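Minutes, project check-in
Item: structure for the 431-residue chain
Input as provided by the requester:
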Amino acid sequence: MSHLDDIPSTPGKFKMEKPYFHRIRWHSSLAKLTFWSLVFLGMIFIFFFRSPSSSPLPADPSRRSLRTPSWGGSDWEKKVRSSARVRSRNGISVLVTGSAGFVGTHVSAALKRRGDGVLGLDNFNDYYDPSLKRARQALLERTGVFIVEGDINDSALLMKLFEVVPFTHVMHLAAQAGVRYAMENPGSYVHSNIAGLVNLLEVCKSANPQPAIVWASSSSVYGLNTKVPFSERDRTDQPASLYAATKKAGEEIAHTYNHIYGLSLTGLRFFTVYGPWGRPDMAYFFFTRDILKGKPISIFEAANHASVARDFTYIDDIVRGCLGALDTAEKSTGSGGKKRGPAQLRVFNLGNTSPVPVTELVSILERLLKVKAKRNIMKLPRNGDVPYTHANISFAQAELGYKPTTDLQAGLKKFVRWYLNYYTGGKKAAE
């Protein structure tokens, strides 16, 4: 049982002289491809490396942190050092980004329990109810984990944190999550999942010593792949959503920083994580809410009335996979931003290996809540969702000792108990 279960640019237009322009002749399709590739790379360069004074994206009020906190000073540094202090013999010191998030909270608590030094970083944005993030923050504070309020795109803050604490590891979980929201606010995904990752890696590459980095990719990278179960060796070049595309881009960016700067990088492809303190935008969470309120729930079906199924993975299993990745991560090989030798680069699936139809998920919730759901069956929309996910975890089993132990029935039972405790004060549970 989890220890947390019961704790109620537009680039400037360039001009060319017409006579010269008309003399250009494309002699082959290869020349065209080369030209446009260079233009594309130039745009990426402008986006990522323009001056800090220019914002990478227009301000988006819906994604801002609720306030802009101050940081620094002797008292602040004291809290940072205390939280990151290693208290076990062979412990590690870990910066956990996205520490007020679902997975971040559980990983931070697990690290702290075993005596590792843990410092959190989170911007507390309002993608979903910030009060839930604040409740997770309070939970972690009671275990001795201090969360710095700030953004992974803040280079000055990140550099200050590494100046105060020589972290041995970074657990990078901060990201803009959600497949469907990408259709409403695509810029937030680029800002967090690409620009934020690059900013973090830029700081890590220059740190001395460089930390080993474990970071959250996603099972979404498999996209339109029809071969199941999904293996790390399968193609991932057909993303079905912008979210998936940004996570795939993250894996390529990780490869680049590993190759050039010697950063040790391990990507974890999570498969539909659920459990206590979860995300309200996930189906199991809002199904529970709406069933209790007597509201109809929309259940999608694939083509030809096929069931939509997910490889639901309980949070405690995911946490064990994260800790296994941290414990087996080799040291980065760079120093002063220069690579000194080959560095470790890995990607693992972390799933349950037992896909369950969403209709069965709803049936389990009905039994646990003792309420009949008002089901509204709909065709799967073209919004980035895929009909089926199934993880091959043999690589994680061999390298990390990863072995999921919680089935959906047992996991949802723990989630429902937490949900009723947190949102209804246990009233429904007592009935």
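Outcome recorded: The mean pLDDT is 87.
No further action items on this chain.
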